[in-house]
Amino acid sequence: xxxxxxxxxxxxxxxxxxxxxxxxxxxxxxxxxxxxxxxxxxxxxxxxxxxxxxxxxxxxxxxxxxxxxxxxxxxxxxxxxxxxxxxxxxxxxxxxxxxxxxxxxxxxxxxxxxxxxxxxxxxxxxxxxxxxxxxxxxxxxxxxxxxxxxxxxxxxxxxxxxxxxxxxxxxxxxxxxxxxxxxxx
Amino acid sequence: xxxxxxxxxxxxxxxxxxxxxxxxxxxxxxxxxxxxxxxxxxxxxxxxxxxxxxxxxxxxxxxxxxxxxxxxxxxxxxxxxxxxxxxxxxxxxxxxxxxxxxxxxxxxxxxxxxxxxxxxxxxxxxxxxxxxxxxxxxxxxxxxxxxxxxxxxxxxxxxxxxxxxxxxxxxxxxxxxxxxxxxxxxxxxxxxxxxxxxxxxxxxxxxxxxxxxxxxxxxxxxxxxxxxxxxxxxxxxxxxxxxxxxxxxxxxxxxxxxxxxxxxxxxxxxxxxxxxxxxxxxxxxxxxx
Lengths: 185, 289
Prior knowledge:
The complex is a heterodimer.
Chain A: H1 3-6, H2 17-29, E1 32-41, E2 50-57, E3 63-70, H3 83-86, H4 90-93, E4 102-103, E5 112-113, H5 116-134, E6 135-138, E7 144-155, H6 161-174, E8 176-181
Chain B: H1 3-8, H2 10-25, H3 30-52, H4 60-67, H5 69-79, H6 82-90, H7 97-106, H8 112-128, H9 131-134, E1 153-158, E2 170-174, E3 180-182, E4 199-204, E5 235-240, E6 245-251, H10 260-266, H11 268-276, E7 280-281
Parallel strand pairs in B: 1-6, 6-7
Antiparallel strand pairs in B: 1-2, 2-3, 4-5, 5-6
């Protein structure tokens, strides 16, 4: 069957002129907008559920996220999402999303905004001070161990293999023993 | 009548119910829905007759031409729009009925009226019959064509999922025998294009979950403001910028009462919008839209 030929649409089909005229009026009132469907992957856990994200290009050059749902064609999740994954859209659109680092000093009752540079410097200083304070060079039997017992590390489920490798190398280099990874959950 | 046929015969009651619902809700399509409602009686009778006494597969075209097509012509004359009625009256007794049905089975180019007569006559019979009868129809048996009769896809629908956090699979529905088959969600039904950048979805404002004020697709929200209440909350245009074809897609998760074949037929304003954007439907529906 010739698809292109079959698609030749007569103006009023079989002569439904009344339906055509009224539908034309309705069409002019509709607020129809175009969108794109894009594949994505849920960022939350190691299952890696496939998502379909609906986006629309706005006239100001930005892209608006309209909807996120499970991809029914994915062999991983077959369209299903957990309650957390089903709300993945909140990562982008929630007005309650924390958009910058917050710091609450010991004993303080309020959080204060910080820049990423300030926060990274503070984390680095804390790591250094904790490591210096808890570093163990030898165990009770005199064996050389050179380990940091005062810091633990927890990796996120969305880590790529490369990020996981990098994080492990860095933490082992600092002497950390307690490494955990959400992907094991 | 077998149990299977009895179960399938429920589709006619479902179609009649939906015609009545949409007739009340979408007044702009009333002329078309009234005619389709009149056709359903003849089509259901043809379905039941074919199911009770299946014709030999090799005689399918002759059976349809002789037993079903005259009834379809009668409905066209009695309840069809003026243009169709006058065409049928003018050609009264001059139909090459067998060739007309065979032409549709072969997928040949036909006039709008000839195609309507052939589709309306053959469709319910094919729905009632088994694989042997459908094998008489020409057409590729690939992902974009009906695996049973080789017909092109008339429409797309997303099945309702078993829970609110799941998305149902996408199916295509055959223009020839109304069989449904699973098809990849983000792929053009016309040419198989699967690059997201080449595929556009057009829907009314207020139909996505984000616009409805929910972050979860399947969960209902409060009633939208009257000014933004969409006419087609569950129907969208799935268009391809590679082959410039489109199909309408019905989302049964949003409207579980929808009957895709009927809803697609009544969504004329969306067809007009798609045409205006330069897209052509993969194949026009029974009513020529």
